[in-house]
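Entry type: protein chain
Record version: 2
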Amino acid sequence: MRKPALAVVTVAALITLSACAATPTPVFWEGFRDHPHGYLTKENAPDASAFLPPPPEAGSLRQQADVETYRATRALEDSDRWRQAAADNEIETPSAPRVFDQALGIAFEPAQMPRLTLLLGKMLGDLETIQTPAKQGYFRPRPFITEPAATCFPPEPWLGRSGSYPSGHAAMGWAWALILSELAPDRADAILARGLAYGESRMICGVHYASDVEAGRLVGAAMVARLKADPAFQADFAAAARELTQARKAAR
């Protein structure tokens, strides 16, 4: 994640589609600073610090296993999986869900699926709301801070100042996978596998421990469950389903 919270002003994420013969080209955000807010508010969103167990204690068997996994995955440096993990660092731009292209069986093109793109993007805003209390409250140091070693991308200074537990990328990858697998159930196996791999990339990169990734998936699942009860999300989900169905038919 690029910052501890998305306390930014959202610019227009999407131009309203008109009934004119010439459909306007959707205008999307570019990154963190103009990223759209989520569907939920702090008052009605789940609080990860209230339902997540604490991270493993220092010296515990689970913490030892986390460290051993961190050390073992350093051996993947310069491998194809290492490079994929580096590419999976992208999470903020409208095209970030392209990591699911192969799993979906089509290219994720934001301009062709604007409501789906916006829905997936707004979920990142909700994730920040849900996970921030746990990240700040537990403030588990990241593995490359505790034990400096190779990472699959150069960590920016803010990353070391952000808590390791839970993993936001793991939460987002799993949440996206849950949504996309519901929209394309015939591709669910591949989509869910890719969502898991997206989270595992954080462990391979050396910026999260394995238990951070597992906790992140709990956060992602909780977020999806809450969003499914939100009327605005429901409306966008229905529109996104129509877009993806049309895009998949056009790709055949």
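Comment: Residues 166 and 212 are 5 Å apart (CA to CA).
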